[in-house]
Amino acid sequence: MEQHSPNPDTAKTNPRLDEVDRKILSLLQTDASLSLDQIADRVGASKTPVWNRIRKLREAGVIRRQVAILDPEALGLEACFFVLIRTSEHDRDWAARFLKALRDRPEVIEAHRLAGDIDYILKVQVRNARAYDRFYQSLIGEVKIHNVTALLSMEEIKATSALPIPEAGL
């Protein structure tokens, strides 16, 4: 699992985005394989200023990375489980073991620490229910968990990695 939360001590300030920046970001979120020429043409600018904007957006941490988004079903990963975890353990040692256990398991594609009655929610992508059970047995064998509820997604209705890009001044 990759850590995405910024460290509050090193968090960067939110850069001011103008209309061209927002257009560039929108294009890259839709298709990061676009060439610099294509992006420049679509935003109505020349290549060098567009390249400089993209570089600055990377340096500011607005663009974290560019990736290929794979189809889980094409890879035989047809079962998506949302796993709700409650724990009675909250000490630093338990949290370190738990985070390591999650990071060591590629089938955990998202993990969030929550406020409220549920401590964590995981998104787990596996081949089938038997594969989920192997994951579950392995996880509870490694770290103590008070309660686990697994919810099988019957249908993915919406999934996107594209963020809403705020308008100027918001």
From TrEMBL:
Every HTH asnC-type domain range: 17-78
InterPro entries for this protein: ArsR-like_HTH, AsnC-type_HTH_dom, Dimeric_a/b-barrel, Tscrpt_reg_AsnC-like, Tscrpt_reg_AsnC/Lrp_C, WH-like_DNA-bd_sf, WH_DNA-bd_sf
GO annotations of cellular component type: cytosol
Keywords, ordered alphabetically: DNA-binding, Transcription, Transcription regulation
Pfam families for this protein: AsnC_trans_reg, HTH_24
GO molecular function terms listed in the Swiss-Prot or TrEMBL record: sequence-specific DNA binding
UniProt record, GO biological process: regulation of DNA-templated transcription; response to amino acid
Protein's name according to its UniProt entry: Lrp/AsnC family transcriptional regulator
Organism the protein comes from: Paracoccus subflavus
